[in-house]
Amino acid sequence: MNTLNKMKVLTDSAQYDLCDYVNHNKSSQINMPGIYHTKGANGCEIPLFKTLLSNKCKNDCKYCINQNKNNFTRLEFNPEELARVFLSYYNNNYVNGLFLSSGIGDDEDSTMEKTIETIRILRKKYEYDDYIHLKIVPGASKDSIKRAMSLANRVSLNIEAATPSGLEELSSTKDYNKDILKRLSWINSLEGKNDTYPNLTHTTQLIVGANNETDREILNRMEKLYKKSNLKRTYFSAFSPIEGTDFENKKECDVNRTSKLYNADSLLNDYNFKLKELVFDESDKLSLEEDPKILAARKMNIFPIEINKSPYKDLIRVPGIGVKSARKIINIRKKNLFENKKDLKKVGVVVNRAEPYIKLKGQEQRSLDKY
Ligand code: SF4
Fold it and tell me: Quick one: which of 210, 295, 343, 360 could link to 239 by a disulfide (CB 3.0–4.6 Å)?
C-alpha cells in the first residue's frame, strides 16, 4: 500500500476524534486528505493535519469501524514516513499543525512508542517547533505519557463515557477506572512539569447518545473532573451510527443535545456553576429548547442584582453577561458607575437577555414577570 492510499484511509478514520474544535464539514480549499479546521483562541480557523498512525486495534468499541472483529486490510504509517508526509503539508503552508491519534495495535505501549517516535522525529530530526496534539491511548504507561507530554503542545485521552457501566455498554476491552480515569490523573499530575512546552494543556472527548447515560450523569462526571484536575475542556461527540459496526442500527444522537451539553459544561468549567444549579427534567435530561443558563437563573433567588455592586460570582450568573464582560464591569465600575444599557453594551453584555436580571443604580430594567 503506498503512502497516498494510507493517507486517504487513515486521515478519513481520524475524523471521529473531536479533541480540538475540529470542523469536519468545512471543505478545505486544498483538495488533499487529512486537512481539518480547528478554531484558535481568537476564533480564527487553523488548518491541521489530522490522522491515525494506524487503524489496527485490539479493542472492540461498538461504535468504531476499527473495532477488532472487523475484517479489512489494516494499515499503518511508519514514524519516519508519517513525519515526512506531515512536513510536506506543513512546509507548503497547507496546515499549521498536527493532530495525531492511533488505533491500539498489539498493545498500548508499543502504539504509544510509535506515535512518540513520530513526534520525536519531527521535533529533533526536522526541528519542527509548531503545534502538535497527541492522543494518549487508554491504558498507556506513565512513562510513555510523560515522554509524550515532553514533546506535544496538547494531549488528550478520550473518556468516552461518564460512568464505568456506561463504558461497558460501549466496549468490553477498556477498564474505565484503570485505563481511563487513572491515566487522566497521571496526565494531570504531569502537566506543567515540562520545561519545553510549559503551556501544554489536556482535553477529553465523550460520546453522547451511544449508551443510556443521562445528561445529569455526564455533567456530574465533568464537574468532578474539573474540580480535581486542570482539564482544559471536554468535547461532546454526538453518536452517529457507522455501517459495519455493532451500533450500525442504533439511533443517532440529536446534535441539539450535544449543543446543550456544551452550554451546560461551559457553566461548570468556565463559570464555576455547581451541578445542583442546573435544571434537568424528571428523566435527568437538559431542555433541548431552552438555554441552561436562563433556566438556572430562573430558579435562583438572587435576581435582580445591582450591576454596580454585585460580586463577580453573581454577575456571571446573569444570562447575557459572560466571563469577559463581568471582568470588564468590575474594572470599569471602580472609576465610573454604569448608568444605562448603552454602557453595558459597550462591555459586551447582551442587554436584552440580561435586563430582567439586573438593576442599574437601583433601577430594575425589566420585570422578570414580563420576561
Ligand atoms: S480504541 Fe476503540 S475507538 Fe479507538 S480505534 Fe480502537 S476500537 Fe476504535
Answer: 210
